[in-house]
Amino acid sequence: MIEQHQEQKNISVEIEDELIRLVTSNADASSQYVVFRNGDDELFAINVAKVEELIVFDSIVMAKNSKMDGVILGVSKVRDHINTIILFDRWLGRSEKPLDEYELIMM
Question: How many whole angstroms separate alpha carbon 93 and alpha carbon 85?
Answer without folding.
Answer: 16
